Amino acid sequence: MTVLAARDQPTLEDFGGDVWWIVLIKVLGIFVILVLLTLFAIVFERKVVARMQQRIGPNRVGWRGYLQSLADGLKLAFKEDIMPALADKPVYFLAPVIATIPAFVAFSVIPLGPTVSLFGERTPLQLTDAPIGVFIVLACSAMGVYGIVLAGWASNSKYPLLGGLRMSAQMFSYEVFMGLSLMGVVAMAGSFNLREIVEAQRDLWFVVPQFLGFAIFMIVGLAETHRTPFDMPEAESELVAGYHAEYSGMKFGMFFVGEYIGIVLVSALMVVLFFGGWHGPWLPPLVWFALKTGAFLFLFILFRAALPRPRYDQFMAWGWKVLLPLTLLNIVVTGALVLASNK
């Protein structure tokens, strides 16, 4: 795989012309990498949290316990699939699928690197491109909420239903802040296209002029993936596991796959939008992208181990009373600076 020069980088019109086997390699590559990243992220999180809490963590299955998540996945695959007698069976079955698939789809527009030569074929390290790539990712992120809400409702149990309702209220609030926090980046890049946003950061990463937007997006990203301290839909101490309490087997596992792929997606988005994407000195572009994304995965794990869970009313009030004014302030200031620089 050879990286081509910057002048050979594709435009929007260049996408859609790949031969079928290149497209197949990209699709299978994204799917396999995300599944492997899920297995790695789970066991890596358990090890990091164990180290922070002065415990041993998983250390039995595989070298130093790194195959523990694979063993857990195989156990779920062969575990008996129990469905509540009074559940809405079609919705109960589709809910984990709806919660997982959008996370995979969102990666279709994430630029992982520049144009490369793959087996003699010129192709960008991106499955497809769209002039509204930011909206596609936000739409896929919002679609995943339906799976969680439907899982709580279809189980015909009160605690899962309460977890699903919490998720709907949480996403209704924080989805607004997520979209608004990106408007500063869009204004500075002059485009909703993720590849063009990466190219606009060739000389200066947007985290510098858009640090407030980055901080808000990182907080909202935690809420989008319902990670601690925003794990209100699960809240084991209150809801006995929340929206997926009545699920078992692979259906239960699919919720975790969707959650961890969502974490990878938010980490990749922060890299693309604020940290220059694949740009960096010395190392290959794809390596830079992987290192930056891995750093944010590690940060997500540290947050889980270090932060307590607030009350639900505090969590909602903080979003509307603190994050919303800061987000609007960031948009106004950025818009004024962009207009001033264009005169």
Folded structure, characterized:
The model has no long low-confidence stretch (mean pLDDT 84). With 343 residues, the chain is mainly α. The protein is built from 12 helices and 3 strands. It has one domain (2-342). The chain is globular, with a radius of gyration of 21 Å. α3 (89-106) packs parallel to α10 (249-274) and α6 (183-189) packs parallel to α12 (312-342). β2 and β3 (121-124) form a beta hairpin. 63% of the residues lie in helices and 3% in strands. The chain starts with a strand and ends with a helix. The chain has a 3-stranded antiparallel β-sheet, with no helix packed on it.
Integer tally of domains: 1
The major beta sheet can be summarized as: 3 strands, antiparallel
Order of helices and strands: EHHHEEHHHHHHHHH
Q: Count of DSSP E strands?
A: 3
**Overall helicity:** 55-70%
% residues in beta strands: under 5%
What general outline do the C-alpha atoms trace? globular
What is the radius of gyration? 21 Å
Major sheet: order of its strands? 1-2-3
Report the span from N to C terminus. Answer: 43 Å
> What value does the average pLDDT take?
84
Low-pLDDT runs of 5+ residues are: none
Query: What is the overall number of helices?
Result: 12
Secondary-structure class:
mainly alpha
Features:
63% helix; 12 helices; 343 residues; mainly alpha; three-stranded antiparallel β-sheet
